[in-house]
Write a structure and sequence with these properties.
Blueprint lengths: L8 H4 L2 E10 L6 E5 L5 E8 L13 E6 L7 E7 L13 E4 L5 E5 L2 E5 L28 E3 L2 E3 L7
Parallel strand pairs: 3-5
Antiparallel strand pairs: 1-2, 1-4, 2-3, 4-5, 6-7, 7-8, 9-10
Length: 158
């Protein structure tokens, strides 16, 4: 009988689930301590992340471990999510960026929604809002603090 790579123990052992114990995000690469199946533990596991997005998964997040060549001493963490924090019931085509304290940036049905306790915008030069209409607050609006004090009506050049 010939060699069948698909039935090789090394191939079957290459991908497994694991749970995040702690994350070290202080260096040039994010390193994670994880626990796997049957009491396995992995320390200083490199977590591969896409360019332009970085996150620190909270303890007990679940991820995939890629064990190169099926070897436990050559593991890389891929992805991560936490069942208690991940937004659920998003429609097809939607996207969301979320944090463990309920922060959310969602793209659903043509609406960009930002949710959080505080919205901070920092800019070195200026902030530009380009829209035919800007509503502050729900029905009835919100008071805006100007140099002259609180104002229910603010006019701006659009």
């Amino acid at each position: 009988m010939g060699y069948d790579p698909a039935s090789s123990d090394n191939i079957r052992a290459m991908l497994r689930r694991a749970t995040v114990e702690e994350v070290d995000d202080s260096g040039s690469q994010q390193l994670v301590k994880m626990r796997g199946l049957k009491g396995e533990t992995f320390s200083k596991v490199y977590r591969a992340q896409p360019h332009g997005l970085s996150s620190v998964p909270p303890k007990d997040s679940e991820a995939l471990l890629l064990a190169l060549g099926g070897r436990s001493d050559r593991v890389i963490m891929i992805g991560a999510e936490h069942r208690d924090h991940r937004p659920k019931d998003l429609p097809a085509g939607a996207a969301a960026l979320y944090g463990a304290q309920g922060e959310l940036v969602s793209l659903v049905g043509g609406v960009v929604r930002i949710v959080g306790a505080t919205l901070m915008v920092e800019a070195d030069t200026k902030v530009v809002l380009k829209a035919p209409r800007v509503d502050l607050g729900e029905e009835g609006g919100a008071k805006v603090v100007t140099e002259a004090g609180p104002s229910p009506t603010v006019y701006a050049k659009v």
